[in-house]
Design goal:
Layout (H helix, E strand, L loop, with lengths): L4 H23 L30 H11 L63 H4 L2 H4 L8 H9 L2 H11 L6 H13 L7 H6 L7 H10 L28 E2 L15 H4 L8 E2 L21 H11 L23 H12 L17
Antiparallel strand pairs: 1-2
């Protein structure tokens, strides 16, 4: 029996519609949903950190990673956090001062970004940001850096569907706020852990230090005692513990009082005793994060050690260990001592951190 032409066409169209409907449903992306999966945070031998109510999730870390590399957060969409914190340089900037979107230099040397989950006493050289989430928003607004307003930054992210989707996964809805931007970047930076240096493997008994490195290690952790004719670098007083910092703000004798050009912590606390005090940085990865000091005045580790050896200047706020306790004559380290100390400092380099794909650009 031959079906009428109209009926055949009708059946064929219905068949095609059914096939198209099934195909379209198969191609449709699943709805974006909140994902509370906790990030597998592994701090190794480090103590468990306090996340201050912002425990990293897989979705939150991914969002923070996207934002860390997002240039739309800057005024002209040319600069991201990562442009002044490069992974190949241990998330630091080897320029003395970073250059912002307006072509202007910053006022201080960019600090390296790693192990920030254990920075418990504030962020930046002067500690003006209490938590990482607070620090993350300041470069966006700084006229010398990304020079953007937070409302504009939010507006640009709202115009990008991938961000609206990722905010849903990370926070449960697509509301984008400065607070959430800070929390997401904080979650990502919490995961940026550097704990696989040669020194760490030595501590686990997996490698042996060279004689030069071992002599440097002993000097690093030993006090100078002129009465016993004992040499020591005294370094551990300020750079102790698993992260090689005491998390304090100190004046390390760079300048005499009349030459203070940057008052550091004082500009935050307004306490006279904080004049020219700056955050003690971690010495992890120090060999790959020049220049050194808050103003990047030293370009080599040898220059840094020579400062502590013979160049510490007195002032009313200089730390006693760095001046009075070393009199007379300073540390009195010779050229071989300095070479050995540098050799030890190089054992704090974690080469796996600078190539870890978890911290690279997601774009």
């Amino acid at each position: 029996m031959i079906l009428p032409t109209k009926r055949v066409l009708f059946l064929l169209s219905m068949l095609m519609y059914s096939v198209c409907l099934v195909s379209c449903k198969e191609d449709e992306a699943p709805p974006v949903k909140y994902d509370p999966t906790i990030y597998a945070f592994d701090s190794g031998a480090f103590p468990a950190p306090d996340f201050n109510g912002n425990t990293p999730t897989v979705a939150g870390v991914q969002l923070g990673r996207m934002l860390f590399y997002e240039r739309a957060l800057s005024k002209d969409k040319t600069q991201s956090c990562a442009d002044c914190h490069l992974q190949k340089d241990m998330f630091s900037d080897t320029r003395r001062f970073s250059i912002g979107v307006e072509g202007l230099p910053g006022k201080r040397q960019a600090m390296a970004v790693f192990n920030v989950a254990w920075h418990t006493e504030g962020m930046f050289w002067d500690g003006r940001a209490p938590l990482v989430r607070d620090q993350a928003l300041k470069p966006i607004q700084d006229p010398l850096e990304m020079n953007e307003t937070l409302p504009n930054a939010v507006s640009k992210l709202n115009a990008d569907q991938k961000y609206k989707d990722q905010f849903i996964r990370a926070f449960g809805d697509d509301t984008i706020t400065p607070e959430r931007i800070g929390l997401a970047i904080e979650q990502f930076e919490f995961t940026m852990i550097s704990n696989n240096s040669r020194y760490d493997t030595w501590q686990k008994g997996e490698v042996t230090l060279t004689p030069e490195e071992e002599r440097g290690r002993v000097l690093f952790f030993r006090e100078r005692d002129p009465f016993l004719n004992q040499k020591g670098g005294e370094c551990f007083h300020c750079h102790a513990g698993f992260n090689f910092t005491n998390n304090e703000y100190m004046n390390n004798g760079l300048d005499e009082e009349a030459d203070f050009s940057d008052l550091g912590r004082f500009m935050v606390t307004h306490h006279p005793e904080d004049r020219a005090r700056f955050k003690v940085p971690s010495l992890r990865n120090i060999a790959l994060t020049p220049p050194y000091m808050h103003d990047g005045r030293f370009s080599t580790l040898e220059q840094v050690i020579e400062h502590y050896n013979t160049g510490v200047k007195n002032s009313s706020t200089v730390d006693g260990i760095l001046f009075h306790n070393l009199e007379p004559g300073g540390l009195q380290l010779n050229a071989q001592d300095i070479t050995d100390l540098v050799a030890f400092l190089k054992t704090l380099t974690d080469t796996t951190f600078m190539t870890d794909q978890r911290f690279s650009s997601p774009f």
